[in-house]
Design a protein that fits this description.
Length: 464
């Protein structure tokens, strides 16, 4: 094995991968007869695989991550310069890029104040859960320790974040789970359950009130936190209904419950605002973020809190257990904040928030046009360049399309050189939403190429 293996001997790379790499989230049996896909290069919105095939990546690295696109030399240069100067010191000390990025980030988040560094979305969410649990112990005799999460939301792959996971297929076979995580109903109006919400005039208010019902059932003095995605990602690209978020905020205030917003997908620019929650009139207590923070150029995540939350951990310096006794070893890596600073500079200098809004609107219009043409598109949802199309076999009954057909549409697009996504092992029977999250640098031509590919794929699959 050597560094030139990629260039000289692609077969050896494929064989090494097949023999020794355990890929994420895939069944490996097919690799006995077909080659695993190996991506070797990226530039802008495109990637090339080891066979030399070029793909338009409509999912930003597969999982809505590479927001500023591939091949950004200025991020690589900033990381390199930082690494040769000072690559690492434990987060009990500060670093220059850590301080600078925290300052820049907080400027984008009015009302927020403190940045706790870690290195994955799951880990940032675990930090938030630990903060909420410790506050329960410090302030409420340990009682206010329950954390609410919502059906269809996802917060990570560790056991505690899966305990807060609302996707049954992700969770199956990995229990038992951590106690005191409690589920609240989802807010997808297209799949509303009449028996729960009746014929309430405002679905948004009714769906938020359903959270209040859970709080009252559990006892408000036992509930410390509510963890929600601003727009649910892998659970079906669910844009919250009108009035939902504002009512959720009221409920949290009423019962003294900390509002933790998981911005791991929406964070930095994906919806056309810096954060997804900024599309609504709300003020969270804790915000977690990861993927788009440095667009995958370095591993970094942040758990950001208000000063009020932070203060609860320094109110009694005489208590040896009273502060946040947590560490993330790799949260001290300086590559993350160095990359994040350049990532943020790029978003600002290239006006990528504005582009996201404009391209998101174009893509939404294109998808709506496709839904007029193809009966299998039941609903199109999303915000900015974070879009989903739920597929059905019967418009009126809203019967979810068989996931094999959903997979066939994704595979057809892949054949055309366009990588799109679909909800995957999430809700039983409802892995039927196509997902789109191209880089925020997408042009009108890219958007049209993506939706043209979907058009052709649906035409082919439905006429087969
Ligand atoms: C909303 C959300 N939260 C948390 C995570 C977990 O992030 P990570 O895989 O970096 O641990 C994900 C990953 O997809 C996510 O979509």
């Amino acid at each position: 094995m050597n560094a030139t293996m990629h260039v000289n001997n692609p077969e050896a790379v494929v064989e090494a991968d097949r023999a020794h790499v355990w890929h994420h989230l895939v069944q490996h049996k097919p690799f006995e007869t077909v080659d695993p896909r190996i991506i070797v290069e990226g530039k802008g919105i495109h990637v090339w695989d080891i066979t030399g095939k070029k793909h338009l990546d409509a999912v930003s690295g597969g999982v809505w991550t590479v927001n500023v696109g591939y091949g950004r030399e200025r991020i690589a240069d900033a990381v390199r310069d930082q690494l040769v100067k000072m690559n690492y010191f434990a987060g009990s000390a500060g670093s220059i890029p850590g301080a600078q990025f925290a300052d820049r980030l907080i400027q984008k988040m009015p009302g927020m104040s403190r940045v706790y560094y870690a290195n994955s979305g799951s880990e940032a969410n675990e930090k938030a859960f630990k903060m909420i649990r410790q506050i329960a112990h410090k302030r409420y005799g340990g009682k206010k320790n329950k954390i609410l999460y919502r059906e269809r939301d996802y917060h990570g792959s560790t056991i505690a974040t899966m305990s807060a996971g609302g996707q049954e297929e992700r969770n199956a076979q990995y229990g038992p789970y951590t106690p005191a995580f409690i589920s609240v109903p989802h807010c997808l109006e297209y799949r509303k359950r009449e028996q729960e919400f009746g014929d309430a005039e405002s679905y948004g208010i009714a769906a938020a009130n359903a959270i209040e019902e859970v709080i009252l059932r559990e006892g408000p003095d036992t509930v410390g936190g509510l963890c929600l995605e601003p727009i649910t990602a892998g659970g079906g690209v669910i844009t919250p209904p009108q009035g939902y978020w504002e009512r959720v905020q009221e409920i949290c205030k009423k019962y003294d419950i900390l509002l933790h917003i998981d911005e791991v997908v929406c964070g930095l620019g994906r919806t056309g605002t810096w954060f997804g929650y900024q599309n609504f009139d709300i003020q969270p207590d804790i915000v977690t973020m990861a993927k788009g923070v440095a667009s995958g150029y370095a591993a970094i995540s942040c758990c950001v809190t208000t000063e009020a939350v932070f203060d609860m951990f320094k109110d009694d310096a005489s208590d040896p257990l009273g502060y946040f006794r947590d560490i993330s070893t790799f949260g001290g890596c300086t590559a993350g904040p160095a990359a994040a600073l350049e990532n943020m500079n790029i978003i600002e200098e290239e006006s990528l928030l504005e582009n996201t809004l404009a391209m998101g609107e174009r893509m939404m219009n294109n998808l709506h046009a496709l839904s007029e043409k193809h009966e299998i598109i039941g609903q199109v949802r999303g915000k900015g360049l974070f879009l989903g199309a739920e597929l059905v076999s019967d418009q009126d009954a809203r019967t979810p399309l068989d996931e094999k057909l959903v997979g066939a549409i994704v595979a057809d697009c892949m054949g055309q050189g366009v990588i799109i996504g679909a909800t995957n092992r999430s809700i039983p029977g409802y892995n039927n939403t196509l997902c789109f999250s191209p880089a925020l640098i997408a042009t009108p031509d890219h958007i049209d190429e993506i939706t043209d590919a979907v058009d052709q794929a649906i035409t082919r699959i439905t006429s087969a």
